[in-house]
Amino acid sequence: MTTLIYTHDDCLEHRPGPHHPESPERLRAVLAALEAPEFARARWREAPLGTREQVLLVHTPDYVASVEAMAPMEGYQLLDAGDTIMSPGTLQAVMRCVGAACAAVDAVIAKEASNAFCATRPCGHHAEADRAMGFCVYNQAAIAALHARHAHGLQRIAVVDFDVHHGNGTQHAFWGDPQLFYGSSHQSPFYPGTGARYESGVAHNIVNVPLSIISAGIDAHFKDPLGGLSLTDDDFHWITTELMKVADATAGGRVVSILEGGYSLQALASATAAHVRALMQD
Ligand SMILES: [Zn+2]
Q1: Chain segment 27-49, per-residue pLDDT in tens
Q2: Of 244, 240, 201, 203, which is closest to residue 218 (Cα–Cα)?
Q3: 136-167 as b/e: b if 16+ CB within 10 A
């Protein structure tokens, strides 16, 4: 068994503007890095489109309807007060993100591979049930977790988030459900301002490890222009290996990984390669 890599060209068509850090070039850098000979063993799959039913596992019907209604035919549409922007290709891109994450869950549960990596964009962990936030439209990690429950009956599901930013959307989606675990390491104080240690969910099912100097996310890399942490490629390899050990001990080794942030193209490429290299050592 090996690692599956899900991606789709539609994820290059989310174009939030020429000066936006969450650029199509991010995904191009990741895909170029994963074309190296050492990854020839990985199996590539085209990400399917997610379904509205999958999106509704996390997001409210009103929000989903508003995203669909606001999707522009041309130009840009601002989804929040800050920097979450839709272009004509955005809706299709985010539905590929959702489809990739859910298909990866299906494939890993069906033992078609040891684990899977979703090379998709935009990121998702800031998206709340009823609003876009922080470059994120739909929360594909939270959706994939609930898909694992609804489609496959999994009882306990963990999302571990080493992005430099706290995943406020995933935390809120999991907060009231003791069967769902969310663990995050992130820079603090930093955007989005959530993720204090005392935020622990209804059953200590939320674990926040705010870090002031060294932490994890591809945007926790020392080269990242947005984050202020100092992780190296080796750290991303290490944390991936450690998470795989936990998954081996508790979840039959089943791991699905979803690209979130990372805004230095060079670091994104090299650290994603380190991450997938670790996944493939299963
Ligand atoms: Zn981030």
Answers
A1: 999 999 999 999 999 999 999 99
A2: 240
A3: bbbbbbbbbbbbbbeeeebeebbbbbbbbbbb
pLDDT for 213 beyond 80: no
Beta strands in the chain (DSSP E): 3-7, 43-46, 77-78, 85-86, 115-118, 157-161, 180-187, 206-211, 255-258
Distance 190 CA to ligand 1 centre (A): 10
What would the pLDDT profile of 93-116 be if each residue is shown by its tens digit? 999 999 999 999 999 999 999 999
* Residue 95, burial from CB neighbour count under 10 angstroms (0-12, 13-18, 19+): buried
C-alpha 110 – ligand 1 centre gap (Å): 30
Give Rg (Cα) of the chain.
17
DSSP E strands: which ranges in 84-165? 85-86, 115-118, 157-161
Question: Could you report the per-residue pLDDT of 165-183, keeping only the tens digit for each?
Answer: 999 999 999 999 999 999 9
* Distance from residue 101's CA to the centre of ligand 1 (Å): 18
Q: How far is the CA of 134 from the centre of ligand 1 (A)?
A: 8
* Contact status, residue 97 vs residue 113, Cβ threshold 8 Å: no
For residue 1, the CA-to-ligand 1 centroid distance in Å is: 31
Q: How far is the CA of 164 from the centre of ligand 1 (A)?
A: 5
Is residue 20 annotated as a catalytic residue, yes or no? no
**Predicted structure pTM score:** 0.96
φ, ψ for residue 96, nearest 5 deg = -70, -40
- Find out whether 179 and 173 touch, Cβ atoms under 8 Å: no
The residue whose two tokens read 């994120």 is 136
Cβ pair 182, 171 in contact under 8 A: yes
The residue annotated as part of the active site, out of 14, 20, 125, 126, is: 126
Q: Sign of the CA dihedral 25, 31, 36, 38? A: positive
